[in-house]
Automatic annotation (TrEMBL):
PANTHER family assigned: HYDROLASE, PUTATIVE (AFU_ORTHOLOGUE AFUA_2G14860)-RELATED (PTHR43798:SF33), MONOACYLGLYCEROL LIPASE (PTHR43798)
Start and end residues of each AB hydrolase-1 domain: 29-278
Name used for this protein in its record: Fluoroacetate dehalogenase
Amino acid sequence: MGIFAGFDLDRIEGAGVKLRVRHGGSGSPVVLLHGHPRTHTTWYQVAPELARDHYVVCPDLRGYGQSDKPASTEDHVPYAKRAMAADIVAVMRELGHSQFAVVGHDRGAGVAYRTALDHPDVVTKLVVIDAVPTVEALERCDATFAREWWHWFFFGQTAKPAERVITADPETWYNAWTVNSPDRLGPENHADFLAAIRDPATVHAMVEDYRANLGVDRVHDEVDRASGRQITCPTMMLWSLRDDMEQLYGDPLEIWKPWCPHIVGHGIDSGHHVAEEAPAELAQALGDFL
């Protein structure tokens, strides 16, 4: 029957763009937001488990996968996490839900916590995976961070556009037949990933996401922190033990506590793409928290 059996696949209006959205299950609603360079299909093993008790919504973020890719601007605001968060609220409203839980991994975690900050009456619970607030990461940037996360800055600059390098050989750039092979991602998830990275418009939009990250996203975080705004809903952070969260930050929960004082969380024995590498453990952790 393929992946996401029993789920519907639609294009739904967000905040001025249409998103490709997979949705199914029944119960309290939860949105799952993917990271870079994935699409919503990264959740193919987790979403059906959660759908036993929840109505699960998995969109492609704006610019990613088969969602719309709006023209950008000099300040990259169309790809700000604030814009992406507004998409999620609008999509859920279209699906009949004024409140929902939100789970985000990697870039999706940035959208998830921005949704909780901008729409506190909407988000009932928040889960962030393998991420800290953008401003906190940038302020702690040292030689180790620059060595391991150099792509943030390569993507973020415009003098020598990263798109030209990536689109010359996207499958090699994104390790499509090695660490991101069909065996590791699953054949159908891999096919969706492959279609995304082969599309120059998608590559440009994904890079615009990083350009927004270094500019407008950081500003939004700085304004919120200066005003004392905090995330008030129950929040959990999960991190991959075979990624570098602990190497970069020690206990990553300590980074989050000024933003959400009652945050809980723990590590999972996995590499970075935890939804694909440790789906059972992730689904269990999410189900327990939700």
